[in-house]
Design brief:
about 20% helix; alpha/beta; seven-stranded mixed β-sheet; homodimer; about 290 residues
């Protein structure tokens, strides 16, 4: 049974201090029996997308593999701890992503998942800083289970949760940087429903702390495949939330709620079409 | 602003009495200011799918248009009330569906929506009695808004809710026959999440009463596009739940939560593929 540690994290302007703290939390997770640790979105940097279109932040991008990832790979290997971090990735000149590298318990970089859906909302000026992800919905076979990632805004898209489940994910990790907003009342509801629809565990790990006008509200949590919130952190401080996941509950739930058996994929073509809800005005060319 | 009446209904073995009650409820809905009424799944018949593979029930099937639908069309026209019923449809010899005819306020039959996803679970022996629906996910432009239907088990499939929203639905009606089960704790959660994901109203109307081992638990409800349950009926008795829907909340919510803007349909091909989660054993032909 995997034991997941969610590192509810507060980052400062000091990247090196943030990384040091992250590496220490890995030790603490291991001491508490964890086999996997997941950090929030942008854990080791300030959440700069709160600031509008400031080109100077592009300099924070780094390659993968690269210096930050390598330090976490080294520590993952020492501790035999599956480790999922989040990095502001510079993939090529001018090409930046919101990326979660997945490191196995032997320190191997299994791969990356890039945020597919990019927000553009008050305090989330993401379409300036991030390209849309192009990794699709990979599932990583780690030492402690099949893991899929939905980064922050990705979690609002049932398509992503479904695709990850169809590809075999047992646990969907959601690294996020979520602050007080209209969405707060549905924080758990959306993920409970995603867990039920797909009969998977969903583990959400949020930042805490205040940066500019934003206050990240913590409340990291795990929902089981039946939509029960089985553990939740507080909303103020840093916290290492340690949760045992009984993966056998996935099959048990799929026997009771065989939604995957009863899907009608041949009828779902509309989901993958590019036409807008409103279509185009008559006489306009519709692009597909 | 449309006013929706959800007819939380208890059916007996006496079809004619059930229909008479339904026609009276339409009057009552109109008197209470409703512009649309929706009945539960199989409202005018006993819920016979609780009984395993009994061929005699096929005789209850009737065509659409047909005698039951015509009576409700007539009353809809008299009352100027958009009316959504549910009928055990006999479409051709040996071809049966779980079907919701949608009747406009002038009595016109706008079309039908057939249940797309068929359950096969304890007390729900549906794969014997129903063919899989072939109507896709139609949206009906009624006198009081654009209405999509998700019949009972259909509501568990995020693909259906998304397809209906993409086709312009403002209100998704869910006629259901839901009894006490493992799903009861997520009764509202799933539909709140579907409402948020698509920024639409979702109105669920359930049966009440006990039939054999099944007790239908009522609790018909409406969630607004922000996932707030704005009205809910009790769990015991029949009830006509009357709810005003402020459709302007859809656009307001879409401005705040622009998930439809930020979808990545070109990445969602997996959703419409027929391959199973586990794939096929090596060497086997995979069917698509």
């Amino acid at each position: 049974m995997p034991t997941v540690a969610l590192a509810q994290f507060c980052a400062t302007e000091d990247k090196e201090a943030n990384i040091q703290k992250g590496l220490r939390l890995m030790e603490q997770a291991k001491e508490n029996g964890a086999s996997l640790i997941c950090f929030p979105e942008m854990a080791f940097l300030p959440f700069f997308p709160r600031i509008r279109a400031d080109r100077s932040f592009f300099a924070l991008g780094e390659p993968i593999p690269g210096p930050t990832v390598e330090r976490f790979q080294q520590r993952a290997k020492e501790l035999e701890l599956v480790t999922v971090i989040n990095v502001y990735e510079r993939a090529a000149p001018g090409e930046y992503y919101d990326t979660s590298p997945v490191i196995d318990a032997d320190g191997a970089l299994l791969g990356i998942s890039r945020m597919m859906h990019i927000a553009e909302l008050p305090n989330y000026n993401e379409k300036f800083y991030y390209w849309e992800g192009n990794t699709g919905f990979p599932v990583f076979e780690t030492r402690c289970g099949k893991v899929g990632i939905a980064i922050c805004y990705d979690r609002h898209f049932p398509e992503q949760m479904r695709a990850l489940a169809l590809k075999g994910a047992e646990v969907i990790l959601v690294p996020t940087a979520t602050s007080t907003s209209v969405l707060e009342h549905i924080w758990a509801v959306e993920m409970q429903a995603a867990a039920i629809a797909n009969q998977v565990f969903v583990a959400v790990v949020n930042r805490v702390g205040t940066e500019g006008e934003m206050t990240f509200f913590g409340k990291s949590f795990v929902t089981d495949p039946q939509g029960e919130v089985i553990a939740q952190a507080g909303e103020d401080g840093e916290e290492l939330l340690i949760v045992d996941l009984d993966l056998t509950l996935i099959e048990e739930t799929r026997q009771m709620l065989p939604f995957l058996r009863d899907r009608r994929p041949e009828a779902y073509g509309k989901i993958a079409e590019s036409e807008s809800t409103g279509g185009a005005p008559d006489g306009c060319v519709r692009s597909h």
